[in-house]
Every structure is written in C-alpha cells, then in structure tokens.
Specification:
The protein is of the alpha/beta class and about 250 residues long. It has ten helices and seven strands. The chain is about 40% helix and about 15% strand. It binds S-adenosylmethionine.
Length: about 250
C-alpha cells in the first residue's frame, strides 16, 4: 500500500465496516432512507458518467457500494474494488441480487492490470483521492486507472475531490459562523458519532484529508492527455461547499 496515511485510512474503514450495524451498512439501501442521499448520488453519477447499457464500469474504492443499486442496472458489468476486506464482504452480501456486480479486495495504489484482463469503459473513484498521501500518489493512481481503460479510452470520474481553494474558503466561512447555534449543534453531533466509533473499535482519529489545488489537478489531467471537466457539487450534497467532482475524458 502507498503512504502511512493511506494505510491508516483503510484500516479505519475496515474497522468501521466491522463494527457498524450490518443492517445499516451492508444493504446498500442505508442512505436511500437517510435523506435519499444514495439515490440522489446514484442517479447523479449515472447521468454525469453518461452510463450506457454496454459499459463495463469499475468503482475504485467502492466501500460497501451505497449507490450500486442505481448504477448496476444501467451497465453491462460493474466491478467494485476496495482495500477494506470487511467493506467488500458487506458489499457482496448486500448486493447479492445484482447479477452483473462483482467485488474484489484490492489496493488501488498497487493495481495490477493483469488482474483485470477485461478493461473498462468508465471508472468511478468517488471520495477516495483525499486519502492519498500526495500529488505524486494521486498521479500514479490516475496512471494505473488509465491503464485499465479499454484501449486507453473512456472516462474517469473523480468524485468529492477536496480542493484547496474551496477548503480554505470553507474554513473562513466557518470562522465567521463561530457562535452560531446550528454550527455548534452540527459539530457536537459529529464529535458524538466520532467518539462512539472510537469507543467501539480500534479507530485512529485526526487524519486530515489531502487537499489538491485546482491548477495541479488540471495540469495532471493535461499530462495524461485527458479532457478535464470540473463539476460543482449539487446543493443536496453534504460536502457541497468543500469539494468538487472532475470528469476526465480520454
Ligand atoms: C469515503 S469511502 C468512499 C466509498 C464510496 N466510493 C462512496 O463514495 O460511498 C473511501 C473508501 O476508499 C477506500 N480506499 C482508500 N484508499 C484505498 C486504497 N489505497 N485502495 C483501495 N481502497 C482504498 C477506503 O477503504 C474506503 O472504503
């Protein structure tokens, strides 16, 4: 695996998948009931990734695959990979009824192209790259993913990329809202959830996301020969004010 930070993150996700109530995480339906988030995200991804019935789709860093109910019916084949064995086990159990879905444990920082002899038309990597250690690791992950595209052509969709510029603006806004009751309520709720998880499992706390500058992402895409489109997050997205999506066309 890549950096120490990435190792810690994956260990945390593995632990979360182990200790969280199975009925909440494994069904793939959990967020459909939690404010319809999985459904909204699934439909958004199907549209923005322009999914076609003939597509082979790879979800790189899928965790339990919360939006897979909405993606798999729209493609020919869907492969989900994640380094967390517990998350993959839950994805398999929760999505048994999805006949065209397959799940594998794999470390994205050490992908072997020979493990995927049938290449992909579309690759989704949602809410993952901020767990990498550096821009170099980001570049090497992207290069491996490009190697998994059919004849080097297709689309890579990077979701929830934490952009430095947006994050800084968000921190400024947060400072301005200090003392607001809504803000305090939100943070105390988040702290309670974190404490509960820490108490129940072997989680490590305090792992900050890696932020990437817009210009660095755009020049990385250009180096790889991709047409790069930056998509603002929809207002229903929980992190709409701190991150964006990138659609890379090859
Ligand atoms: C925030 S979750 C996102 C899951 C899913 N894409 C979603 O949006 O619901 C991040 C996932 O990335 C996985 N991950 C992080 N680094 C990884 C790596 N090097 N190899 C494979 N999976 C990784 C974690 O195990 C975790 O399941």
């Amino acid at each position: 695996m890549g950096s120490d930070k990435n190792r810690l993150i994956v260990a945390n996700y593995d632990e979360i998948a182990r200790i969280s109530p199975l009925d909440i995480l494994s069904s793939g339906r959990y967020a459909s009931s939690a404010f319809g988030y999985a459904g909204k995200l699934g439909r958004f991804l199907a549209r923005e990734m322009e999914l076609q019935p003939t597509d082979r789709l790879l979800d790189a860093g899928c965790n339990v695959g919360i939006y897979h109910d909405h993606l798999s019916p729209r493609v020919a084949r869907m492969v989900g990979v994640d380094a967390s064995a517990h998350a993959i086990e839950r994805a398999r159990t929760g999505h048994r009824r999805l006949a065209n879905a397959e799940y594998r444990v794999a470390d994205l920082t050490a992908l072997k192209p020979e493990d995927f002899p049938q290449r992909f038309d579309k690759i989704l990597c949602y809410s993952v790259v901020h767990f990498l250690g550096s821009l170099d690791e980001f570049e090497s992950l992207l290069r491996s993913l490009v190697g998994l595209l059919r004849e080097g052509r297709g689309m890579i969709f990077l979701g929830e990329v934490r952009e430095t510029e947006m994050y800084e603006r968000f921190q400024d806004d947060l400072k301005k809202s200090e003392g607001s009751r809504l803000r305090d309520l939100k943070f105390s709720l988040l702290k309670k959830i974190q404490k509960w998880l820490l108490r129940r499992g072997k989680l490590r706390e305090g792992i900050a996301p890696t932020l990437f500058r817009r210009a660095d992402i755009e020049s990385l895409a250009a180096r790889l020969g991709a047409k790069c489109e930056r998509l603002e997050q929809a207002p229903w997205h929980p992190f709409y004010n701190t991150c964006v999506d990138y659609r890379l066309r090859f």
